[in-house]
Amino acid sequence: MNALVIDNLACRRGGRLLFDAVSARVEPGGALLLTGPNGAGKSSLLRLLAGLLRAEAGSVSGGGRRAFAGHEVALKPRHSLGAELDYWARLDGGRDRLAAALAAMNLAGLVDVPCRHLSSGQKRRAAIARVIAAGAECWLLDEPTAGLDAASAGLLTAAMAQHRAAGGLIVAAVHGDIGLADAATLRLG
Amino acid sequence: MFLTLLHRDLMAIARSPALWLPVMFFVLAAALFPFAVGPDARLLARIAPGIIWVSALLASLLPVETLLAPDVEDGSIDQLIARGIALELVCAARILAHWVGFAVPLLAALPVAGVLLGLSADDGTRIAIALALGTPALASLAVVAAALTAGLKGGGALAGLIVLPLALPVLIFGVGSDVAGAFRLLAAASLVALAVGPFAAAAALRPE
User: Is the ipTM above a cut-off of 0.85?
Assistant: First the structure.
């Protein structure tokens, strides 16, 4: 496992330079919190790391496979939660990890429920379970605690601690505390 | 990978409330013409191929707003890109699923339309072969238009404007399929559309 290196990254959206000369390094087992006011480019940096945006300048390397949980939960309203997560786990080659991921986010009792009947917090938990089941080394989480109750936030904290203990990396855009111990902070804007 | 994508797309179509819409539209359009044109059986049989092809083309466009736009909006496309899955593969699966979703029921409903329009068995068979050869091109064009208009308001109407001129060759060779070589040209149009479609749709979906 190797470190995630962000080198002199710049991002331009809609003709406006969001940030430039952003550099950071996340070691295996480490975590990086992206902070800053609304519109500072936290989500854009995460999308850049996930390969969803092209960088204006600079480069990103290392960190192994990346799994992304953004604002959109990518769950089809008519499909059951279990079928949805099974589809993504299939694409990730991680169906054997799915049961543990569902248990970690306390979703095992909801697998038969169509996604349109899930609350936004439950959908958010499902998106995190998808990241866990992906088996990727680097987690990219965009405000992962948004809409989560205290108990679910605790589950997330435990899952992130377990991921880091196994040598995984986490980059998260946050506004408050999400329960990541000794994480580095990168302030944008 | 491709099979997983295709399976998911087919499941999505099977659960869609709009599953029967294209084929219902097709049969309804064919049923309306005898009322509009009058009960002249010879005239109906003569214009039947044109009616059937125009109906098929419009039926292929009916679900165009649900082909890709929901996946762009709910972040599914983002998840696929983040996994490094080629969008060309995603679009190819979508084209195949769309074809299964609209063309196969349409071919099954063709005998009904044929009876309503007074087609002879020979002409009916010829049109069925022409439709089987030409509809893959229509499916491919619809997915490309869906990719181009995903995320736009009123994308469906715009998608129609994009597809209709491009579908003209298929329409011409499809309606004129009694001319020698028309089947081959129809198949060629489908092959070109199928070869270019996944790449064009993927290019339209790829983030800036």
Answer: yes
